[in-house]
Specification:
CATH superfamily of chain B: Cytochrome c oxidase-like, subunit I domain
Strand order of the largest sheet of chain B: 1-2
CATH superfamily of chain A: Cytochrome c oxidase, subunit III, four-helix bundle
Number of helices of chain A: 7
CATH topology of chain A: Four Helix Bundle (Hemerythrin (Met), subunit A)
Oligomer: heterodimer
CATH architecture of chain A: Up-down Bundle
CATH topology of chain B: Cytochrome C Oxidase, Chain A
Structural class of chain B: mainly alpha
Number of domains of chain A: 1
Helix content of chain A: over 70%
Shape of chain A: elongated
Distance between the termini of chain A: 55 Å
Strand content of chain B: under 5%
Largest interface: A-B, 44 and 51 residues
Largest sheet of chain A: 2 strands, antiparallel
CATH class of chain A: Mainly Alpha
Number of strands of chain A: 2
Distance between the termini of chain B: 30 Å
Helix content of chain B: 55-70%
Number of strands of chain B: 2
Order of helices and strands of chain A: EEHHHHHHH
Number of domains of chain B: 1
Number of helices of chain B: 15
Order of helices and strands of chain B: HHHEEHHHHHHHHHHHH
CATH class of chain B: Mainly Alpha
Strand order of the largest sheet of chain A: 1-2
Largest sheet of chain B: 2 strands, antiparallel
Shape of chain B: globular
Chain lengths: 229, 550
């Protein structure tokens, strides 16, 4: 049932709703329900992290030494700023300033790019040392120990587990960042096309909520993976 | 609420009730179906696909039973009694389980009957997000496609539970089947998300939460489970695939991982999933019992809230699958106690249904026969669930045919009986035609009797110690296995009769059945049969509860 109706102000809404406001409220609830599924999905990984951290605390303590807190902090700042620009984008749509809204959304996407670029640097550094996840790990023990200033005996035998978590958690998060960037670009195209108005911006609001959740996940990943040492 | 603007009325002009304009002839051609955003059409597409998957899963089941008809014996160096090889058998068992769980029972009631009737029962024009609804159907097809692809890579033989470490031993087939379940899971999530928002936001004026039909309450509870539990399955399946491809070592003991952690993850979804499978059936049964007793349902509030209670408790019982997996004794005792607690809200439902029958004017038409069959079989299934929740008994019954019999009594005796009853009940509304009552009752007879002949002996076999999943068994178990196999052929006959009855009804020329052939009181019966594209000519205004019989 896709037929579109228009209210007295010319705002469109699908005909199985009563009004654009009704559609907006329902859509927003749908997004929140979707975010609940995301939280539960990441929740599975966090539970696994908690359990293995309990069994092998030293793996995570040593493993985190291979991350650079400066890269992590930079990415935290980048993502937090992008959350601000995302929110400002919605604010400017509400204020009928579509040009500014467009720029805010664009900056948000650029922040996403910066985040992924920094991740790329971090990933290549680890892969270069042979710090692969699980059975693919092939770091040279001497070299690896030297890198963090420890003696080879201090490196836990299953250090690879840390990198399984590192790549699994940041990888799944990175996929979400890229999905979010794609969605923001989609809202930018629609904004240019004139789809949104102060009374009608459900899609931007939904994408914004998603983007904030992606940030929030990073806020947890940062201390768990970078700062546990 | 929505007023009927002239444009929504336009295509109804010149048509009266009955044989005129309806959702079936609103648009023509296969493409109009494959791109339809109409919840009724999507429901029918789910009907067809679920029935096809059911046929495949059912044929696998019949092959399994045929293999188990005789114990295999070595006579003159030749094995007799074998129909398939051991490795074919484990694959048949895996696909029977995976198909029936992920592609038949989970989508069966919500995505088919629920999709069609939830908006009608609350007086809405559609579900909240019609596009996501259509997408959910394609997710199910995508999942099924991956499952089929896995068969070309030798087929998975892990059982539908994908237990580690066997499932992570580098098999492409497992990766594909797991990905299929992952993609199919999105179908379930989207359906659940849609239903929660629809129930919250699209009820007709006057349709308060205390007036929604019990089928809607059941679907609503199910939808909450689908939204909250399925993502955990998603991450679990993703981790299995990652284990298989990248050997990340979360579940692999060789890499310091923990295989029991997989079981915890898996059952954290898959136990609530059991209620995703059975709660909608409770809803169908509530509708049938009320309609065919011609009486206000006894304990509406108790039945409604017990669905929510079951959904809530179901998140805290998963550990009962791991009584013998090395879980701590304290955990075992706690999970055992909480599991038994599920019996309370479930029994509340059964007692309320029975109380509704008291002094009622019962019409034993085919849907009601299925409802009665449900109550008989489900009660056996539920009570044997309490046996299994008892840690001492479970140590003996674990991984025996007792468990197989128990969950078939619940899933087939429960959910499939409800689907069948629901199909016969709502068939006149969906297609404007009645199913031949003699054929419908014959199908019930074969399925009901056949079911008991098949699965009751399995309780005995399990109690005697016959392990589940095995290709072969000791000759001492042969008589009961033969009985079970003969019963399975009766079930098969019953479903063939049901299929013929449905096709016969669809092809038959009949007088229009009218809006409400059963004299039921819920909203879907106030619109025409089949319903128009917009469901109702005028948005209904609700002034009373759903079961105002007497």
């Amino acid at each position: 049932m896709s037929t579109v109706k228009y209210d007295a102000h010319g705002n469109p809404y699908a005909m199985h709703y009563d009004s654009p406001e009704h559609e907006y409220q329902t859509g927003k609830q749908g997004v929140w329900l979707f975010l609940a599924t995301e939280v539960l999905m990441f929740g599975g990984l966090f539970v696994a992290y908690a359990i293995f951290h309990h069994i092998y605390p030293e793996v995570f303590k040593i493993g985190a030494k291979f991350t650079d807190w400066r890269f992590g902090s930079a990415n935290t700042i980048v993502l937090l700023s992008s959350s601000l620009t995302m929110a400002l984008g919605i604010y400017y749509i509400q204020m009928k300033n579509n040009a500014r809204a467009f720029w805010m959304l664009a900056i948000t996407v650029i922040c996403g790019f910066i985040f992924m670029a920094i991740k790329y640097v971090e990933y290549s550094h680890k892969l270069h040392l042979g710090l692969y996840p699980g059975a693919w790990y092939h770091g040279n023990l001497e070299e690896v120990a030297h890198h963090v200033g420890l003696s080879p005996e201090e490196i836990p035998a299953n250090l690879a587990l840390y990198f399984s978590f590192y790549f699994m958690m940041t990888g799944l998060h990175g996929i979400h960042v890229m999905l979010g960037m794609g969605l923001i670009i989609w809202t930018m195209i629609r904004l240019k096309r004139g789809d949104f108005s102060p009374d009608h911006y459900t899609a931007v609001e939904g994408v914004g909520l998603f983007w904030h959740l992606v940030d929030l996940v990073w806020i947890y990943l940062f201390p768990l993976l970078y700062l546990v040492s | 609420m929505a007023k009927n603007t002239p444009d929504t009325h336009a295509h109804d002009h010149g048509h009266g009730h009955g044989a005129g304009h309806n959702y079936l002839n609103h648009e023509k051609g296969l493409w109009s179906w494959l791109t339809s955003l109409d919840h009724k059409r999507i429901g029918i597409m789910y009907f067809i696909t679920v029935m096809l998957f059911f046929l495949v899963g059912g044929l696998a089941a019949l092959t399994i039973r045929t293999e188990l008809f005789s114990a295999n014996r070595l006579v003159d160096g030749q094995t007799t009694g074998a129909v398939v090889t051991a490795s074919q058998y484990t694959r048949l068992m895996t696909y029977h389980g995976a198909i029936m769980v992920f592609l038949v029972i989970i989508p069966g009631i919500p995505a088919f009957l629920g999709n069609f009737f939830l908006p009608l029962q609350i007086g809405a024009k559609d579900v909240a997000f019609p596009r996501l609804n259509l997408l959910s159907w394609y997710c199910l097809l995508g999942g099924a496609g991956l499952a089929v692809a896995s068969m070309f890579y030798g087929g998975a033989d892990t059982g539908w539970t994908f237990y580690t470490p066997y499932s992570i031993s580098l098999s492409k087939a497992v990766v594909l089947l797991v990905s299929g379940a992952f993609v199919g899971g999105f179908s379930s999530i989207l359906t659940g998300l849609n239903f929660v928002a629809t129930v919250h936001k699209l009820r007709a004026p006057g349709m308060t939460m205390n007036r929604i039909p019990l089928f809607v309450w059941a679907l609503y509870s199910t939808a909450i489970l689908q939204v909250l539990a399925t993502p955990v399955l998603a991450i679990t399946l993703l981790l299995i695939a990652m284990e298989n491809v990248f050997q990340i070592g979360f579940f692999d003991p060789a890499l310091g991982g923990d295989p029991v952690l997989f079981q915890h993850f898996f059952w954290f979804y898959s136990h609530p999933a059991v209620y995703i499978m059975i709660l909608p059936a409770f809803g169908v049964i509530s509708e049938l019992i009320a309609a065919f007793s011609r009486k206000t349902i006894f304990g509406y509030t108790a039945i409604a809230y017990s669905s929510i209670a079951i959904a809530a408790v179901s998140f805290f019982v998963w550990g009962h699958h791991m009584f013998v997996s090395g879980q701590s004794e304290i955990a075992g005792v706690v999970f055992s106690a909480i599991t038994m607690l599920v019996g309370v809200p479930t029994a509340i439902k059964v007692f309320n249904w029975v109380a509704t029958l008291h002094k009622a004017s019962i019409n034993l038409a085919s849907p009601m026969l299925y409802a009665m069959g449900f109550m008989f079989l489900f009660t056996i299934g539920g009570v044997t669930g309490i046996f299994l929740a008892t840690t001492a008994l479970d140590t003996h019954f674990h991984d025996t045919y007792f468990v197989v019999a128990h969950f078939h009594y619940v899933m087939v005796g429960g959910t499939l009986m409800a689907i069948m009853g629901g199909i016969y009940y709502w068939f006149p509304k969906m297609f404007g035609k009645m199913v031949n009552e003699v054929m419908a009752q014959a199908s019930f007879f074969f399925i009901f009797v056949g079911f008991n002949v098949t699965f009751f002996p399995q309780f005995v076999l399990g109690a005697k110690g016959m392990p589940r999943r095995y290709y072969d068994y000791l000759p001492v178990f042969e008589p009961l296995n033969r009985m079970s196999t003969i019963g399975s052929y009766m079930i098969g006959t019953g479903f063939v009769i049901a299929l013929i009855a449905v096709i016969h009804a669809l092809l038959s020329k009949q007088e229009p059945v009218g809006d409400n052939p059963w004299g039921a009181k819920t909203l879907e019966w106030t619109t025409t049969s089949p319903p128009p594209h917009d469901n109702f000519e005028k948005t209904p205004i609700v002034t009373a509860g759903p079961y105002e019989y007497r």
